[in-house]
Design goal:
mainly alpha, Hypothetical protein af1432, 2 domains, three-stranded antiparallel sheet, 8% strand
Length: 318
């Protein structure tokens, strides 16, 4: 294990995207006492025992040199394709890898929200999340509400993406719009992650307890990542609009005071509200659904709420 100077820049990647006994074609580092230590040389692999020890020690991230990001992405793309195609890999393992990819993508988007590379990584993660869920129906419950080491906002983003993707399919949303929806869902709260820490705490406050001043501060997150993405040629306007509208309601109580939403926009807003209830009120998915059916009448289309209730029960979420 050799020590590296800090003159180079490093990018965090989830440890679960680099499995045991799989050769890497780039050096891998760990961060210890403000120093990056080379843990794996290019062309080497982690032995199973060492990998298990790292997981047991709650090490969640490795680091790579920023100059190796494209090499890492190619490595991950190949690993994911092989894993998702394999009939020998369990659904749990597939879910863990895809979840790790989405976590890494959200981390990357938080650190560099305006870059095409960050967006492309998120788009790929969203596509693989769709593939996982549509090809492995039972995977939804492996992804949604998973107890891991992620930041609560990161896990919330994954929860919302997973539920939105599958619910949108039952609502016969077009495939292209599900692509936009899945990408936007992973990105929708990047603005919260970019806020000052004391403002981030508003994420954990129930919506009905937010003061006028709280709302003014908190709802600014809806355009927090958008300002970095506006007018970029690589992003579709529908993704931008989905992010901007994820706190809207049909009664116009959201930051944009919109009273009319497209089906994908309303799905994202509804699912975001549902998962936030679980988090902020510290209640079960079933109790959150009960609250939705009482407190959110008028905020979302009644038929959509009823369909969502049927969907959650059918999927075994509640």
């Amino acid at each position: 294990m050799s020590q590296q100077g800090n003159e180079k820049t490093y990018t965090p990647v989830r440890i679960t995207t680099i499995k045991a006994n799989r050769e890497v074609n780039f050096p891998v580092f760990i961060h210890f006492k403000n120093v990056y230590l080379e843990y794996l040389k290019s062309g080497s692999q982690i032995e199973s025992d060492k990998y298990k020890k790292l997981r047991k020690q709650k090490i969640t991230k490795f680091y790579i040199q920023s100059s190796d990001e494209k090499t890492y992405q190619s490595f991950l793309d190949s690993f994911l394709e092989e894993t998702l195609n394999s009939k020998e890999v369990s659904v749990e393992e597939k879910s863990e890898l895809v979840t790790a990819q989405t976590e890494t993508a959200i981390d990357r988007m938080k650190d560099d929200p305006g870059s095409e590379e960050s967006y492309d990584m998120t788009r790929k993660a969203a596509k693989n999340l769709q593939r996982l869920i549509f090809e492995n129906p039972e995977s939804l419950n492996n992804v949604f509400g998973a107890e891991g080491d992620s930041d609560a906002i990161v896990q919330h983003s994954i929860n919302v993406a997973a539920l939105s993707i599958k619910f949108a399919k039952t609502q016969k949303v077009e495939e292209e719009d599900i692509d936009f929806l899945s990408t936007a869902a992973l990105m929708h709260d990047i603005g919260v992650l970019k806020m000052e820490e004391n403002h981030q705490e508003l994420f954990n406050k129930p919506r009905n307890e937010l003061t006028i001043e709280d709302k003014k501060v908190y709802y600014d997150h809806c355009k927090g990542v958008v300002k970095h993405l506006k007018d970029k040629p690589y992003i579709n306007d529908k993704v931008i609009e989905l992010i901007e509208c994820h706190e809207e309601t049909l009664q116009g109580s959201g930051p944009l005071q919109k009273m009319k939403l497209t089906k994908p926009q309303e799905i994202l807003a509804l699912v975001n509200c549902y998962d936030k209830k679980i988090i902020t009120n510290k209640i079960s998915p079933n109790d959150a659904l009960k609250e939705m059916m009482i407190d959110e009448l008028g905020n979302y289309n009644l038929d959509l709420l009823k369909d969502f209730k049927v969907f959650l029960k059918k999927e075994g979420v509640v």
